[in-house]
C-alpha cells in the first residue's frame, strides 16, 4: 500500500503536464499507467487541447491539394506547363526528339536543347514544383547544374528528391518550350561511361 501512494501523486502530476508532451509521457511510464494515460489523452483531445495531433493530416491534405495545382506561385503551374508543351506529333518534327529515349529511372534528370538565355532560376521555376521546400531533406537534394560553356552548353542536370518526382518532372516537362526552344528531358545516366574506366585500366 505504501508504494501505491506515490503512484497516485505521480499520476496527478502527469495529468498537469500531459498537454505539453503526451508521447514522451506515454513512453516513460509503466504499462499499468499507459492505459490510464491513453484515457486521459483522449479526454484532452476531445476537449480541444490536442490540436497539435491533427496537424500532420492537414499537412497531407495540403500536399495533395498542391498536386491538384495548388503549387506556390513561385513555381510554374501545371496549366502553364501543359499549355507550352509540344504535343507528341509536334515533337516528331524536331530532330532533337529523334531517337528519344527517357533512359533508366533515377532521381537525377538531364535536360538538353536549352536556349542561350536560360538561367538556373528558369529551371528552378519549372522543376521546383516537384520539390517540397518545407522539407529540409528535399530542399537539400534539389540541385541544378546548368552548363553555360564548352561542349555541354545548353544542358543541365537536375537532382530531385526521389525517382517518383523525377519521373513526374520528365513526363510533364519534356517538350516544354522555354525561350522558343523545346526542352528535351531524360533521366541522367547515373554512372560515368564505362569506357573511361576501361581506358584507365589499359593505360596502367
UniProtKB/TrEMBL annotation:
| CDD domains assigned | RRM2_RBM40_like
Compositional bias (Acidic residues) spans?
A: 63-72
By its UniProt entry, which SUPFAM superfamilies does this protein fall under? RNA-binding domain, RBD
What keywords does the record list, in alphabetical order? Nucleus, Repeat, RNA-binding
Q: Which cellular compartments is it found in?
A: Nucleus
What does UniProt give as GO cellular component?
U12-type spliceosomal complex
The RRM domain covers which part of the protein? 107-190
According to its UniProt entry, one GO biological process term is:
mRNA splicing, via spliceosome
- Which taxonomic lineage is given here? Eukaryota, Metazoa, Chordata, Craniata, Vertebrata
Q: Does the keyword Ligase apply?
A: no
PROSITE patterns hit by this protein:
RRM
- Tell me which species this is from: Eubucco bourcierii
Q: Mention one GO molecular function.
A: U12 snRNA binding
Q: Is RNA-binding among the key words of this record?
A: yes
SMART domains xref list: RRM
Pfam families cross-referenced by the UniProt entry? RRM_1
Q: Region entry Disordered: which residue ranges? A: 50-72
Q: What is the protein's given name?
A: RNA-binding region-containing protein 3
